Amino acid sequence: MKVAIASGKGGTGKTTISTNLSAYLAEKRSVVLADLDVEEPNAKLFLDIELAKSEIKYKMIPEWNENCSLCGLCQEVCNFNAVIKLNTQIMVLPELCHSCYACSELCPENSLKMIPQKIGIMNIYKSDGLDFIESKMDIGQEQAVPLITKTKDYIKNNFDNKVLAIFDSPPGTSCPVIEVIKDCDLILLVTEPTPFGLHDLKLAIETAKQLHKPCAVIINRAEQGNLLINKFCAAENIDIIAEIPNDRQIATLYSGGQLLYNELPEVKKQLQNIEDYIDLFNYGGSYA
Amino acid sequence: MKIIFTSKGKDWDSKIDPRFGRTEFILTYDTEKDLLENYDNSSVAEEAHGAGPRTAKIIYDLTPDVLITGNGPGNNAISVLNELKMEIYTGAENLSIKEALEAYKKGTLNKFNN
Fold first, then answer.
1. How many distinct structural domains can be found in chain B?
2. Domain range for residue B58?
3. Is pLDDT of A284 > 90?
């Protein structure tokens, strides 16, 4: 089963939830956590875990050779303006290329051969019960999606579907987030009870709905008496499955790169609520 | 000499479009013929990706000597524009086309070093 931890708004606590939930569940079952916020992965900061291996990741881009009639078909078929026909050459802009192969396959002279370009690195960590995968995009790369896809492929090929996979998503609702959540079974949206948190939660819920993905909400920095998110979710019939309190001790532990649940019983209780929900969801029960 | 402007309209009183890739119009002024021509670039709004190099390619085919714009082109567009022997001036974003031409003549625009 694959569960995405996503948000809409940045800084709501996706990584806090992802790391604590994964470590907590890994005490009882096999879990693989993937930090798919490849533009700025940070889950490793909270995990005491050994590096097992690293893999360099590539995307395929066309490379022009001069055996070319400059017919311009490549520029015509490129949907991303990544191939530009100039007077004496074809210019390839690798940052814009989506590796669709159209220019390469359709070139009558075979002048655009696809070659690998390094886009980042994937690190694989292991400890008892928990596997942790983290991918980091190279500086200067503009597209996160190809690296996210390759990281998901690794998980698909190396872990049984019975292993619970938790995907720590990037913030927002753009292409990288879609790539993370599109083949997840369940999306858990972390938000905070502020107008900004609610605004972006609405966008995230709309995104999940468009993809026909079930979602539930986790409120972080919950405050007694602040029902901003609760009221919205009740009206929209969306489950709130955990509420992490707004607690200075959490901030202190987080700042020191520590996990929370061993120190704070309330956090452990909320993680248990999330586990119960995931299990009920997985076994087709209903949540009361 | 051919001078290109990124523009929000078709004539001398139009404002400079501060955006390079997504400029609404590309105006070409031929100083010898004293002729101002316009290219409607508004379909660039439909491009999700690569607006910069797309506009750069259109400018490349016009073979200008000077480009006057607002914010300046990004790196992908620059890769294409570097294939031209063309000077680029930025900082004209609050000016009309007429004013931008005057500013260019007076040398008060910023030369873009790529």
1. 1
2. 2-111
3. no
Instruction: Give the span between the Cα atoms of A180 and B112, in whole angstroms.
Output: 39
Residue type, A231: K
Is the separation of the CB atoms in A146 and A118 below 8 Å? no
Nearest CA in chain A to B44: A81
pTM confidence score? 0.82
| CA-based nearest residue to A111, from A142, A136, A75, A74 | A74
* CATH code of the domain covering residue B107: 3.30.420.130
10 Å Cβ neighbour count for A101? Answer: 13
A116/A234 Cα distance (integer angstroms): 49
CB contact under 8 A, B76 and A85: no
State whether residue A106 sits within 8 Å of chain B by CB: no
Helix (H, G, I), strand (E, B) or coil at A37: coil
* pLDDT (tens digit per residue) in A71-120: 999 999 999 999 999 999 999 999 999 999 999 999 999 999 999 999 99
Q: What is the pLDDT of residue A265?
A: 97
Q: What is the ipTM of this complex?
A: 0.89
Measured between beta carbons, the chain B residues lying within 8 angstroms of A95 are 75-76
**Among candidates A161, A276, A172, A262, which has minimal Cα distance to A216?**
A276
* pLDDT tens sequence across A196-216: 999 999 999 999 999 999 999
Amino acid at A99: S
How far away is chain B from the Cα of A265, in angstroms, using its nearest Cα? 48
Asked if the model's pLDDT at residue A167 lies above 80, the reply is yes
The shortest C-alpha distance from A76 to chain B (Å) reads 11
CB hemisphere CA count around A287 (13 angstroms): 19
CB contact under 8 A, A95 and B76: yes
Q: What angle do CA A16, A207, A272 make, to 5 degrees?
A: 35
Q: Which residue in A81, A86, A89 is closest to B50 by CB distance?
A: A81
Here the contacts of A69-75 (C-beta below 8 Å, separation 24 or greater) are: A69/A108, A69/A109, A71/A108, A71/A109, A73/A103, A73/A106, A73/A107, A73/A108, A74/A103, A74/A106, A74/A107, A74/A112, A75/A103, A75/B57
